Amino acid sequence: MQTSEAHIERLAVSVCTELRLARREICQDAVRLFEKDMVSAWVRSVLRPAEICGLLVGARCGHWDILSDWNVTLPGTPKPPLVPPAPPPPGAPSARLLFLTDLHWDQAYAPGSDPACKDPLCCRGGRAQGPPHAGAGYWGEYSKCDLPLHTIRNLLQHLARGPPFQLAYWTGDLPAHDVWQQSRADQLRALRTLSTLLRKYLAPLPVYPAVGNHEATPVNGFPPPYVHGNQSSAWLYGAMAEAWEGWLPPEALETLRGPGGRRSWAGKGRRAKGVHIIGHIPPAHCLRSWSWNYYRIVNRFEGTIAAQFFGHTHVDEFEMFYDEETLSRPVSVAFVAPSVTTYINLNPGYRVYQLDGDYPGSSHMVLDHETFILNLTEANAPGAEPRWQRLYRARQAYGLPSVFPADWDGLLRRFQADERLFQQFWFFFHKGHPPREPCREACKAALLCALRSGRSADPSLCRTLRPRLPFAHVQALWRQRRLC
After folding, report:
1. Is the pLDDT of residue 261 over 60?
2. Which of 454, 483, 448, 453 is nearest to 468 (CA)?
3. Tens digits of residue pLDDT in 435-444
4. Sign, CA torsion 337/341/343/349
5. What share of the chain is helix, strand, coil (3-state, %, to 5)?
């Protein structure tokens, strides 16, 4: 007689195969990898059958209460008077901030392998059929491929030879996208190998890491603190605390070892000024209530938060935050930096921010930023050497007097009216390797809507844009372009 678990496994593999999400072998591997955690979650769940159906199938099947609204409690003290951002005084020092995100090291990357396979991740395995140049490039490939370790090492060597940085932010997603076959040993090897490389080439630079959704296995699998034992995340957080010791202060390391202490640690810095928030997934990509509550926090503490830094999407973009009363006054901007990985069809890249430097009264705000890429067409040419080069500098490329929130809001308005400027942004958005199909009309409206939306599922943020599209259509276009 077949057990319930075996029946669920067989059904899930069948659905995955019938929907052509992947070939049957990958479906089987993925289901087996996720099965134990999924069954455990269902056993612990307090959801009723209709709610489970709504979660898995959609609103027509049932209602999932986790999507309902809730509000975080903010301090009862009045919000301090607003002080508009201003440029630093003449002669004030500045600081260079290195920002690395989404390295996605593929431990099985093989130059010359098939870059156009049917699997979710390519450029691995045996040699591709056809002429020699048809295979995956040595330094990376324009396809659904991640990076070999020698490309990441070359990047770090390049950074070590360049002008000095004062600090670095490293916002996660270290392993590759082979999410159907990852083991804990694979994830820990990526964590330890890449952390060691950063120490080797960037020391004594202080590095502040954040956790990406790909660090866990199964991917996105971060059980809450009340889950203990082998199914908890202790194996990962403990290894992170060990790998990042010396970079993070003792309080942060303790937070990693015991995730339930996150609130009390964050609370110690609530009187600070010029705060930087770093994370992996940008706020607008989060579930609605979490995203909207974060938006409220940014509004309440706009005089405290100097900058927000995220990754995850692999492309070069930003998300605007407006005052909650009118949704018209820009209060903050979340910078979303491009990935180191090529996934999908991109050049490798990284970001450098210029900050108001460390001196009494510094705002620590972003003053400008530069994006650098490795042009794979040039790097993979016979006899060529890899050359990391600046793609653009924000203020110069967009004609900005500064890069404060009001400047990015004004740039969005210029994108609406100036097609040439928008197409330049589209080129930078893809790290200098845009798709062949241009971004016009509906694509442009959806992208501008995304740039205005620092919180998820809010059509009111996009009502001023033209052409007006049904918000469901806009959301569908967003889902089509997600690379992460």
Report:
1. no
2. 448
3. 998 999 889 9
4. positive
5. 40, 15, 45
Average pLDDT estimate for 403-429: 97
Residue 31 CB-density burial (10 A; 0-12 exposed, 13-18 middle, 19+ buried): buried
Asked if omega into 164 is within 30° of 0 (cis), the reply is no
What are the two backbone dihedrals, phi and then psi, of residue 218, each rounded to the nearest 5 degrees?
A: -60, 155
Using CA atoms, how far residue 27 sits from 37, 118, 256, in Å, is 16, 13, 32
Residues forming the annotated binding site for Zn(2+)?
Answer: 102, 104, 173, 213, 280, 312, 314
Helix (H) or strand (E) holding 374: strand 366-374
The tokens for 82 are 């607003």
Which pLDDT value is given to residue 476?
Answer: 79
Residue 65's pLDDT band (cuts 50, 70, 90): low
CA distance 376 to 227: 44
Structure confidence at residue 260 (pLDDT) = 43
**Contacts for 156-161 with beta carbons within 8 Å, 24 or more apart?**
156/197, 156/198, 156/200, 156/201, 156/202, 157/201, 158/386, 158/388, 159/98, 159/201, 159/202, 159/350, 160/201, 160/202
Q: What residue has token string 């769940």?
A: 45
Pick from 262, 329, 253: which is nearest to 85 by CA? 329
Kind and range of the H or E element at 275? strand 275-278
Per the annotation, binding residues are 102, 104, 173, 213, 280, 312, 314
Return the top range by mean pLDDT from 42-51, 254-263, 385-394: 385-394
Q: What is the pTM of this model?
A: 0.92
Q: Do residues 277 and 270 touch, judged by C-beta distance below 8 A?
A: no
